[in-house]
């Protein structure tokens, strides 16, 4: 809708405006410097011959030049290996149920994936007698201290449903009517 309105205003009196712009006097360009016109100089035969002529003295000097380059020997800095892993990290396959597509397949030992963390926290919350910290540490190749910290400080979300009496109390309240 807005495009139609703008098109009407844009096309209004187009021919008169175009003819007015065409009939305006054109500004004269600034004068050019003498050296800016190289096209007349480039046409001269003397310059073309000078460019294409080979100078024997310069060719002889160029043939005498011989360049030999050698890279300096590579020096290994001592103490730089602290940041490099000394051996390949051991990986373990993840223990996933129906959420395999959402998570990584291999995790380094001593670590767990996000889906595994949520699964073990949920299992511990639902059945703390079966899923103890020792069993979780053995099952997921974790340290017992880390598992205890995980179970103490992280709690999975729980869905709480309010009783129906609370809903009635909230809905039975009548708003004040303005008179």
Structure characterization notes:
- With 179 residues, this protein is mainly alpha-helical.
- 45% of the residues lie in helices and 3% in strands.
- It has a domain at 95-153.
- The model has no long low-confidence stretch (mean pLDDT 77).
- It has helices at residues 2-11, 14-23, 39-42, 45-52, 56-64, 114-126, 133-140, 144-153, 164-171, and strands at 91-93, 106-108.
- The chain is built from 9 helices and 2 strands; from the N terminus they run αααααββαααα.
- Helix 7 packs across helix 8.
Give the arrangement of secondary structure elements.
Layout: H1 2-11, H2 14-23, H3 39-42, H4 45-52, H5 56-64, E1 91-93, E2 106-108, H6 114-126, H7 133-140, H8 144-153, H9 164-171
Antiparallel strand pairs: 1-2
Overall 3D shape: flat
The multimeric state of the shown protein is: single chain
From the helix content, strand content and strand pairing, which structural class follows?
A: mainly alpha
* Share of residues in strands: under 5%
Number of strands: 2
What helical percentage do the residues reach? 40-55%
Count helical runs.
9
Main beta-sheet annotation: 2 strands, antiparallel
Uncertain segments are none
* Mean of all residue-level pLDDT scores: 77
Spatial order of strands in the largest sheet:
1-2
The arrangement of helices and strands along the chain is: HHHHHEEHHHH
Please report the distance between the alpha carbons of the first and last residues: 43 Å
Any idea what the radius of gyration is? 42 Å
